Amino acid sequence: RRFNKKKTQLNSNNTKSIGNKISIAGNFSNDSDIRNSVENELFEIGSQFEKHNLKFQGPAFGPIFDEIEISNLINSSKLFHYSGHFIDGENNGWKINSNTNFNIGSFKKLNSIPNFIFSNTCGNNSKEIYSDFFSNLHELGVENIIHTTGKLNTEFSKIFANLFYYEFLNGNDISNSLK
């Protein structure tokens, strides 16, 4: 797991500023190898938001082949959580289908950029590809980013994400929520 931060350290006291601007989504491509795990993860995360009386969009699951629909989810968010496949290559990003990714070009078209993105994704082990993608997100204005690198056990990543949100929503800042 990697954590990039700018100046802002969000914690649950900042949930008023996040307000109703939370979106959770996963598996845009509707891949069967991760479908059940991602659905369970996002329902559990949504349940945590509900316990803290936070309104949110989602969970949104694939198949979502329309980049505009994905853009609308992200545009409306200050906190955006995505779980699914990260595809590397020339247009690396979150897998929409076998030919299309939601990549940096897609993010550049957004009207608004979230303050915080949790990208619970797996792909290959190339740290350089991941670093470029997430560094570019940071340059676009995403202040806080949690992302993964390499191949991940989906059950482990689901547990990790839920533990993170439990700590975060109970008052810890992002860095302490990762411990």
Number of strand segments: 8
How many distinct helices? 7
Alpha-carbon Rg, integer = 15 Å
- Order of helical and strand elements: EHEHEHEEEHEHEHH
Question: Which spans of ≥5 residues are poorly predicted at pLDDT below 50?
Answer: 1-9
Rounded to the nearest angstrom, the distance between the terminal CA atoms is: 11 Å
Percentage of β-strand residues? 15-25%
Main pleated-sheet profile: 8 strands, mixed
Instruction: State the helicity in percent bands.
Output: 25-40%
* Average predicted confidence as pLDDT: 85
Query: Which word captures the global form?
Result: globular
Structural class: alpha/beta
Describe how the helices and strands are arranged.
Elements: E1 2-5, H1 15-18, E2 22-26, H2 35-51, E3 57-61, H3 67-75, E4 79-87, E5 93-97, E6 100-103, H4 104-108, E7 116-122, H5 127-140, E8 144-147, H6 154-169, H7 174-177
Parallel strand pairs: 2-3, 2-4, 4-7, 7-8
Antiparallel strand pairs: 1-8, 4-5, 5-6
Characterization of the model:
A hairpin with a 2-residue loop joins strand 5 (93-97) and strand 6. Helix 2 packs parallel to helix 6. The protein is 39% helix and 24% strand. The protein is globular, with a radius of gyration of 15 Å. It has 179 residues and is of the alpha/beta class. Residues 1-9 have low confidence and may be disordered.
What brief labels describe this structure?
179 residues; alpha/beta; eight-stranded mixed sheet; globular; disordered N terminus
Short description:
The protein is an alpha/beta fold and 179 residues long. The protein is built from seven helices and eight strands. A hairpin with a 2-residue loop joins strand 5 and strand 6.
